[in-house]
Amino acid sequence: MRYTQSKEQSAEVLRAALGHLGQHDAALNPWSFTVWYEHAAGINARLSRAIEECLRTEPRLGDATIARLYRDHVSEVDEAAMQRVSGEFQRVMSGMAESAARTGDTAGSFGQQLDGLTQALRAEQSPGLGPLLGRVISQATEMKDSADALQQQVLASRQEIERLRQDLSRARDDALIDPLTRVVNRKGFDQKLQAMLDQAPEAGRTHGLVMLDIDRFKSVNDTYGHVMGDRVLQAVAEVLRAAVSDPTHTVARYGGEEFAMLLPQCTLDSATALALTARDRVKAMAVRDRRTQRVMLSVTISAGVTTLHAGDGPSSLIVRADSALYAAKQAGRDRVHNA
Fold first, then answer.
1. Using CA atoms, how far apart are residues 23 and 32, in angstroms rounded to an integer?
2. Where are the beta strands (DSSP E) in 15-107?
3. ∠ CA(207), CA(212), CA(215), 5° rounding?
4. Which 3 state secondary structure label does DSSP give 59?
5. Mean pLDDT of the chain
6. Helices (H), 124-216
7. Residue 149 near residue 202 (C-beta atoms within 8 A)
8. Which residues of 160-191 are buried (b: 16+ CB within 10 A; e: fewer)?
């Protein structure tokens, strides 16, 4: 594990990292956060030496330099660690904003008290004290203005951090989506399958997996071309996505013309019924010429259904569902088999 600091320790490191961030020109993004966090924590000697070398010729490090430092000396950090650094940084910024607000309020209250005292002393015609207290009030006002400016700066930085975190979240989600069909890709399928298996089924429930394959898809590509083949894949994916109403269930493109449905907390009967519904809806689908609206072709799918058995891991569950899918193909296609 790369980052072993406690929450309190990491907060102190992040405060130090914040000081570094403010002294340089690079944007406030997770890569900058991580570079300065590791430098401030003293956990990456190679990085710290590289920073010192860069500072000899570039007193204010810019985006390109930070990106190179991150790539050369930090890039092996995992995403979870990056999220932890960003999250801790945001919490520190939040604390600083609250502290700045309290400081500004205190300065304002102090200034009001001094103003009242000055007026009272002037009414008593105490020579010399008026100008002195006037200077104190001026300094208190400056302190409050500085605290207000700091508060605004910190709030703006927090908003930028939140925007960056949202961008990271979207990028992470996009990395798990198949760009053609807009369903979960193979990487996302693997992650969600493992997450499903890590969760114990509820009483009377199990976890299900449906493997689905477009029948004779090669002939679609050979007859109509790959552009039409892509349209068929998109259309089938849309039908499968529409067939799944439970938000905990997932449709994925497993590879090529093969799709999968992950069905946590289901029964064998409900999983089979869903596979049959998907098969019927795909069979009823017609792919039309976009210019003439003439029906060009229709397609069918075959499906294999299985549910969790004792001792199952990802591989055994997939193998069993694939075997059921193969049996459906061998039996004549456009069928659903379970195992």
1. 12
2. none
3. 165
4. coil
5. 82
6. 129-174, 186-198
7. no
8. ebeebbeebeeeeeeebbbeebebbbeebbbe
Of 280, 261, 252, the C-alpha closest to 207 is 261
- Model pLDDT, residue 147: 66
In CATH, 186-338 is 3.90.1150.10: no
User: Given this model, what pLDDT does residue 295 score?
Assistant: 78
CA dihedral sign of residues 27, 28, 33, 39:
positive
- Domain map of the chain by residue range? 7-77, 80-174, 186-338
Round to whole Å and give the CA distance between 213 and 233: 10
Backbone angles phi, psi at 179, to 5 degrees: -65, -25
**Is the separation of the CB atoms in 264 and 207 below 8 Å?**
yes
pLDDT in tens, 23-40: 998 888 888 888 998 888
Sign of CA pseudo-dihedral 325, 330, 336, 337: negative
- State both tokens at 220: 């679609």
Segment 254-276, tens digit of pLDDT: 999 999 999 999 999 999 999 99
Most distant CA atoms of the chain, gap in Å? 108
| Residue 104, pLDDT score | 58
Nearest to 302 by CA among 253, 267, 335, 263: 335
